[in-house]
Amino acid sequence: QTEDEALKVLFSDRRLTISTLLDIDDKNRQRVPLAPNPIQEDIIVNSGLRDIYVKPAQVGFTSIIVGDFYLDNITIDGTISVIISYDEFSA
User: InterPro entries annotated for this entry (predicted)?
Assistant: First the structure.
């Protein structure tokens, strides 16, 4: 398999891309691959181009959204992402 073929496979599966390229600090502050949990999987599979979410707590929502935005920003030219918080304590 050539490099181009490997990259095509990697970027054809969003879950594979996220879990391969992105790391996150776990609750013990250890760096681990961002392996999506079932709620995060649902977000990856069902999200569209323009979604509005009410943020759930303690399910890794922010991690998966920021990771998803980050991948778009570094791989798709001209991509702009916006995350809005309703107060300074929620950011």
Answer: P-loop_NTPase (IPR027417)
**Identity of the amino acid at 17:** T
pTM of the model: 0.73
Q: How far apart are CA 91 and CA 85, in angstroms?
A: 5
Q: Per the structure block, which two tokens stand in for 3?
A: 């490099």
Of 51, 52, 21, nearest to 35 (Cα)?
21
Domain ranges, ordered by start, for the chain: 3-75
Q: Name the residue with tokens 């922010």.
A: 62
Q: How far apart are CA 59 and CA 1, in angstroms?
A: 36
